[in-house]
Amino acid sequence: MTATDRTLVMYGEGAREAAHRMLPTLPEERFVPVGAGAEAVRDAVGAAVEDGLAQVVLVAGLGEQIAVLGGMTGLLESVTLDMDCGVALAGEVSRAATPRDVYALWEAAGKLGPCGRELCRRTAGELERVAAEAAGAQSESAAPVAAQVVLVDAAGERMVGMYGRMAR
What we know:
168 residues; 5 strands
């Protein structure tokens, strides 16, 4: 069994083509749309565990990742502060009405790269936590699948950030 036989690629709204460009050798059946719903992502990760896959990849925008992590309140402000972007920017982020507004704030401040990578890191951790839970493991470090997360721009065309582990 090759690595591609053991990989599942989930993609958010508008990110189908980007996902295929990033992993062009994977067969079509390894790509699954998950839309903007956190439940669809969790279900796909659970199915990957049941199928004995080694790796899950999520290619998604800011909104989908926020959904996976449980919502925007406090999350993006925390990411902003943790990436040393300052209290002023974190305050603007906390008042942002939409994920696109946050994206624009991070981009204007020149912090989209580090903040995007940190968001991907947190999302990958959550995917591995969900995988560990689906497998009955006690911690995400015991997750049976490795997670990689790619943040794409609002158009779903350009990779903005990435984080993850390779399959074991």
